[in-house]
Amino acid sequence: MEVERGRTILAAAISAGISINSPCGGDGVCGKCKVRVIKGKSSSLPSAAIGEDEKNRHFCLACGTAVLSDLEVEVPAESRLDSSKSSQAEDIEYQQSLFSDFSSGALTRKIFLDLPRPTIQDNISDLDRIIRQLKKTGNIPGIQTALINIRSLPVLLRDADWKVTITLARRSEGFEIIQVESGDTSGKNFGFAVDIGTTTVSGQLIDLNASKIIGTKATYNRQASYGADVISRIIYAEREEGLETLHQAVTGCINEIITGLAGEHKIDLNDVTAVLAAGNTTMIHLLLRLDPSFIRRDPYVPTANFLGTIRATDAGIKINPRGILSCAPGISSYVGGDVTAGVLSVGQDKADDLCLLIDIGTNGEVVLGNKEFLIATSASAGPAFEGSGVGCGMRSSSGAIQKVNIFAPAGAELKVNFETITGQAPRGICGSGYIDIIAGMLKAGLLDKNGKIGVSSSRRVRNTEAGREFVLVFKEDCGCRSDIVITEADIDNLKRAKAAIYAACNILLRRMSLDFRDVRKIFVSGGFGTSLNIDSAIAIGLLPELPKERFVFAGNTSLSGARQMLVSDQADNTAAAIAAKMTYFELSTEPAYMEEYMAALFFPHTDLARFPSVK
Amino acid sequence: MEVERGRTILAAAISAGISINSPCGGDGVCGKCKVRVIKGKSSSLPSAAIGEDEKNRHFCLACGTAVLSDLEVEVPAESRLDSSKSSQAEDIEYQQSLFSDFSSGALTRKIFLDLPRPTIQDNISDLDRIIRQLKKTGNIPGIQTALINIRSLPVLLRDADWKVTITLARRSEGFEIIQVESGDTSGKNFGFAVDIGTTTVSGQLIDLNASKIIGTKATYNRQASYGADVISRIIYAEREEGLETLHQAVTGCINEIITGLAGEHKIDLNDVTAVLAAGNTTMIHLLLRLDPSFIRRDPYVPTANFLGTIRATDAGIKINPRGILSCAPGISSYVGGDVTAGVLSVGQDKADDLCLLIDIGTNGEVVLGNKEFLIATSASAGPAFEGSGVGCGMRSSSGAIQKVNIFAPAGAELKVNFETITGQAPRGICGSGYIDIIAGMLKAGLLDKNGKIGVSSSRRVRNTEAGREFVLVFKEDCGCRSDIVITEADIDNLKRAKAAIYAACNILLRRMSLDFRDVRKIFVSGGFGTSLNIDSAIAIGLLPELPKERFVFAGNTSLSGARQMLVSDQADNTAAAIAAKMTYFELSTEPAYMEEYMAALFFPHTDLARFPSVK
After folding, report:
1. Residues of B in contact with A298 (CB under 8 A)
2. Do residues A194 and A275 lie in contact, with contact meaning Cβ atoms separated by under 8 Å?
3. CA distance B140 to B385
4. Within an 8 Å CB–CB cutoff, is residue B118 touching chain A?
């Protein structure tokens, strides 16, 4: 591709649609966007992230290197924003989230009509003929149609010999005929459910007739190139063209997933007629190109939390041009539709017992309640559990180390057993892997409660300029360019993430004059792995110490809730009721939160009485 | 303007927005598009419509004359499609159609909101803040908003210091926020009611807050250049680009009227937020660019009879870009929303007594019924009563002769008294004038019952090649280029029009086993004058002979019904109920219709027993 002389390699890569990891937004700080210049002239700013050895091998930061001539650049696997196909393991997990609770009609549905031909005794208009027949198939209130569809009717109906398939879309107070097709195409109606995470975008193509998952794909949110968390994204959005850039980045991800899944399963994009998106409030603003500025400013007001259905193309999503988009309703600036979808998915709003839903993502959201009440809050956890902002982190996809056991036999070398997603050669570590590693290191006495790695005779423990690191896999054992390690800096990131989430849970309980022991069920959700070792999560102080049977690992509940809303009117109505019922508790104005957070910045916690088994 | 060499003067005039009368659609048949070439080279096909004297003075038919060089052309007043401002007389008539029956809310309404500013305790989204406050002002169901408006909220609300005016539009099952304006603009909300007739387009600008008429304007439908009746328009629409051409022609008229009225009354077009259009089924198809082809083909199926509200701009109407358009619901291919509006306007659907609504237009529509039943039919009458297709005809506007008295003193010269609309010098004859003239000529013994002008010693009766003619006004008395006359051909056109309407009424009554004597009230509507002499109409056999008090001249009921629907939810609902209730009776399949029509092709009728006073 052509690039203007003087532009950075990162900017050029973004223009070319190549995703380079750059969580700091191109500020030269994070050191994640390392690339290697193979041929041509370039000029790099100095960076501490590039070692002497790397420099000699022509490594540089993509964000700090200007293009000066034709250039050949290698993007190492570690610097890539992974957009590979999701693992089969994920597919299996998602399949287990059943549709069966809701079955009363998808967001769009196709109905084949064999219309009686007009006669002089029955010569109502073409449109009325369709509506009359539709109403015979069931009670369909307030049917609307856009002019563009009505204009096509006379020729289409007669060419089709009065046999047509109508696509109906649920609108706020009725239904819209969004498409009229010749013949019987009712067998082909597909929808797309998507969880737009700050770090990861996960989507599923759904057969709306069978309420069946056809395929699942995930990719890192390309917006990560412009900042790791929602606040930095909002700041970026305030730049000239910033909002448009972030909007394009996320629709790029969504379109890539839809197109990829449709291509793999030989489905025509025109047969995809509905999208249901769940995401935090900022993500939905960026998707819809709504100004997010006031989300980050006191008193934290979003532009909109709920919009009803709109045309998917108005949000830049490339499905059927008349297809529609609905977004799960949000609650506040920091508790979005992803949380509503999560509550829907686990059925917390119907529960008799007190439940806690903990969504572990870049924002950690927590919902306390049951059928009586629902109260939610949100804590900024950072993307560590999603494998971002940590040295060898990656999202939970093929090759991610997701389960780890560390054995410390007396007098012998440390032994590490691990399992990767789909069993492929290890490429990095995902969230559930990190949880196991820290728990294992604590148990093996390699880590103190502050998260510092102790002196050890093991060759796996090494000193570096930035502190100690623990080698999980040596490069010669995995065929990687470098060893797969966890550093003290990584552990610090993970510690802050788990502390934020634990503290948020605790504050919410205190606010309701309750205690962890009152909670009968804890749903843990998030995309940090395909399974979670609850013991490990308790050992590091991410989850409270409670009987194991109270925990349910629920996977990506935002995605499964979105899917339910996509296939069911009833789920959609339930989500609206959840959003209306849920109250939001603002942590930032709660002085006790900072205390709780500080107290949780230990493994597992300063107050060991809370973790008797660890004690 | 630039014209391609070889194009006709008529085509060039249409491109330039100059309206030349050409009811035959440019086929060289009607001879109405006479123009005079003042300078330049042109080439004309021979035409019987151009006399030797005219030819010498460089008159030619615009449709049959090709442009060969730069040309200076004069369009005589007689050849112009009059688009002048409507008379004050009309304004007065329209004002009398009261709004008072309906007062429950206009199609669009503006509501000023002084919003409470967000606080940390009350930080719902900008959109929710608006909706919450709106709901405090009344029960407003299902509020929707388009993305484009939501996108503007954050900056607009804060710049406006939370004082904004919301424009709400009635949608099928709820309301839409179509506009958010800074400050209190609630005093400025205007709508436009329009009757789209085959021959005449009449519109009114309405203050929606006060339910008050601001101004009225009418113009000939520019589509008349492509055919005089709906069938010839449909045939034209089937040509390549024909539908688009007719669509542009009618939106051109509508926009001309709106822009003209807004300009005269210093109203910003942006403050016009709603249009309510009533028209026959073909006119509404052409307005909405819907294919009308099947309207004219057995079994006569329109594309749509009712659409709900759409964006006005989607129909090419230039008001507020988010403003909406609603069309009065139609019944069938030949009974349209103009009839629904008419029934609404005169309250026929609420009447205890049996009523007959006779709408005298290019299509003559007749509705029989009361609160128990409504049955309608339509007869092709031709545009004669609207002053089209008759030699000196013009529509009812300034200078039209609308009332005529003919005195035949024994042994003395005939004397003609007449009255023009607004009292200006006579320019032509409108429908009510023609009715008076024929009645007067019959009474004076100048006309036989076949419509042939008898031999007379009066200088007003003249022989021409095409038969006899009667001079109403000599050119020296009116300053016209020619005498104002009525010819036997004109009388024949008017006779066929009145016969079609009378026969339609009679067939409809027979169909219901009723008789004219059973009808307690006859509403006569149409734009053929500002008043109607009922005695004259009976004398020529247009109306049945019944006691005079049973007749009500209701003016343009399509326009007054549209206006009621524009200002009132309740009227809008009533119109939908009327359309649902009304049945359509097809005349073309009724063998007795042709007999009735033939029998009515006399003045007043073959069966004089029906007109005892004339007898």
Report:
1. 120
2. yes
3. 45
4. yes
CA-based nearest residue to B430, from B579, B220, B245 = B220
Instruction: Check residues A612 and B91 and name the one with the higher pLDDT.
Output: A612
pLDDT at A24: 59
Q: What is the CA radius of gyration of chain A?
A: 26
In the sheet that holds B484-487, the strands lie side by side as B461-464, B467-473, B484-487
Interface check for B245 against chain A (CB to CB < 8 A): the answer is: no
- Asked whether B260 and B274 are in contact (CB, 8 A), the reply is no
Q: Give the integer Cα–Cα distance in Å for A480 and A392.
A: 11
Distance separating alpha carbons of residues B196 and B251, to the nearest angstrom: 10
Amino acid identity of residue A452, one-letter, is: K
User: Is the separation of the CB atoms in A42 and A67 below 8 Å?
Assistant: yes
Residues of A in contact with B305 (CB under 8 A): 124-125, 127-128
Mean pLDDT rounded to a whole number for chain B:
90
Distance spanning both ends of chain A, measured CA to CA: 60
Judging contacts by C-beta atoms under 8 Å, the chain B residues touching residue A123 are 299-301, 332-333
Residue B124 and residue A314: Cβ atoms within 8 Å?
no
Amino acid at B131: I
Report the DSSP pairing between strands B428-429 and B400-407.
Answer: parallel
Task: Report how far residue B404's alpha carbon sits from residue B418's, in angstroms, rounded to the nearest whole number.
Answer: 4
Count CB-CB contacts under 10 A for residue B423: 10
Q: pLDDT-derived band of residue A95, with 50, 70 and 90 as boundaries?
A: very low
DSSP 8-class letter at B448: -
**Nearest 5°: CA angle at B339, between B393 and B254?**
60
Residue A45 phi/psi, 5-degree rounding, is -75, 145
Mutate to test the interface with A, among B122, B123, B298 (most CBs of A within 10 A): B123
Q: Edge-to-edge strands of the sheet including A324-327? A: A212-220, A200-207, A190-196, A272-279, A324-327, A310-311
Ordered domains of chain B (ranges, CATH): 9-79 (3.10.20.30), 108-182 (3.10.20.880), 188-327 (3.30.420.480), 347-381+494-610 (3.30.420), 384-493 (no CATH)
- The reported pTM is 0.84
Cross-strand pairs, A119? none
Q: Does B153 touch chain A (CB under 8 A)?
A: yes
Q: Which of A257-261, A385-389, A514-518 has the lowest mean pLDDT?
A: A385-389
Q: Which pLDDT score, from 0 to 100, does residue B574 have?
A: 96
Q: Measured between CB atoms, does B455 come within 8 Å of chain A?
A: no
Q: Which residues of A330-356 are buried (b: 16+ CB within 10 A; e: fewer)?
A: bbbbbbbbbbbbbbbbbebbebeebbb
* Mean pLDDT for all residues in chain A: 90
Q: Of how many residues is chain B composed?
A: 615
CA-nearest residue to A141 within chain B is B173
Residue of chain A whose Cα is closest to the Cα of B295: A125
> Which of B346, B338, B393, B349 is CA-nearest to residue B372?
B349
Q: Which residues contact B262 (CB under 8 A, 6 or more apart)?
A: B190, B205, B268, B269, B272
* Residue in chain A nearest B153 by alpha carbon: A303
- According to the model, what pLDDT value does residue B19 have? 67
Question: Are B291 and A154 an interchain contact pair (Cβ–Cβ within 8 Å)?
Answer: yes
Q: Residue A506 in contact with residue A597, Cβ under 8 Å?
A: no
Q: Does A316 touch chain B (CB under 8 A)?
A: no
Cα dist. B399→A425, B253, B257, B384, B412 in Å?
A: 94, 21, 20, 18, 28
